[in-house]
Write a structure and sequence with these properties.
heterodimer, A: mainly beta, five-stranded antiparallel β-sheet, B: seven-stranded mixed β-sheet, 11 strands
């Protein structure tokens, strides 16, 4: 079946270091791949997206990389801050239907 | 803007009772989504509407679940009768077709516990 999933369920990062969160997907037909962040007790929040015909996109402190050869998506967070502690989901969008992966919990150590 | 508003924030009910969850999307948004989040199944799309019309309800688990959107500013998700396995956090989200295709704005969720 088609699925979006994550390599690691948890990630512990020292404040100020860079974080890398990985995701594997199986549906090559998706138009977009997206990253969402969910803080404790809140709904998911959009971070950044990338179109399937791109391999890199940068935002504010975040970079998303897409490797279609190995069906791999990653989110890089520069200079990780305590406010970055959350669960991060990769997702794919097919005609407005978002399919979310299992999520990676990121904990930032002071 | 206040964002997506959901009520109640918490609901505890007994098996067999009817449960109604409510959502007010962001003004001007023409898409509305209902999701369910559990530890076992993650975040799942249940149904979504475009201009108040249900477009895809393939994620609705069974006939006990129903959703309506009588106007652009209100939607309900109803479970009748409720069962313990319906316990989850239910999120409503909205988006605009004139903005980012991928950015959905989620409400704070309703935590449902069915005893």
């Amino acid at each position: 079946g088609e699925s979006v999933g994550l390599h690691l369920p948890t990630l512990s990062v020292q404040e100020g270091d860079n974080s890398i969160i990985n995701c594997a997907y199986s549906n090559s037909a998706s138009d977009y791949f997206i990253w969402y962040k969910q803080e404790s007790g809140k709904g998911p929040q959009f971070i950044i997206d990338i179109r399937s015909n791109m391999d890199k996109r940068q935002g504010q402190r975040v970079t998303v990389l897409l490797n279609k050869t190995v069906k791999h998506l990653s989110l890089q967070i520069a200079a990780t801050q305590p406010g970055d502690s959350a669960v991060y989901f990769c997702a794919e969008n097919n005609d407005y239907k978002l399919s979310f992966g299992a999520g990676t919990t990121v904990t930032v150590r002071a | 803007d206040a964002g997506v508003i959901q009520s109640p924030r918490h609901e505890v009910t007994e098996m067999g009772q009817e449960v109604t969850l409510r959502c007010k999307p962001i003004s001007g948004h023409d898409y509305l989504f209902w999701y369910r989040q559990t530890m076992m199944r993650g975040l799942e799309l249940l149904i979504y509407f475009n201009n108040n019309v249900p477009i895809d309800d393939s994620g609705m688990p069974e006939d006990r679940f129903s959703a309506k959107m009588p106007n652009a500013s209100f939607s309900t998700l109803k479970i009748q009768p409720s069962e313990p396995r319906d316990s989850a956090v239910y999120f409503c989200a909205s988006s605009s077709s004139s903005a980012s295709y991928n950015e959905q704005f989620f409400g704070p969720g309703t935590r449902l516990t069915v005893l």
